[in-house]
Amino acid sequence: MDNGFGFADAIGPAKMIYIHEPAAGLKAILAIDNVAAGPAIGGTRMAVDVTAEECFRLARAMTFKNAAAGLPHGGAKSVIFADPAMPPADKERLVRAFAQAISDLAEYIPGPDMGTDETAMAWIMDEIGRAVGLPRVFGGIPLDEIGATGFGLAVAAQIASEATDLSLKGARVAVQGFGAVGLHAARFLAKRGAILVAASDTGGTILDPNGLDIEKLRALKAAGCSVADLSSGSRAGPEAVIAADCEILVPAARPDVIHMDNVDGIKARLVLQGANIPATLDAERRLAGKGILSIPDFIANAGGVIAASVEYHGGSERTAFEEIEDKIARNTRAVLERVRASGAVLPREAAVELAHARIDRAMALRRYHR
Ligand code: NAD
Question: In a mutational test of the pocket of ligand 1, which residue from 143, 202, 239, 295 has the highest number of ligand atoms less than 8 Å from its CB?
Answer without folding.
Answer: 202
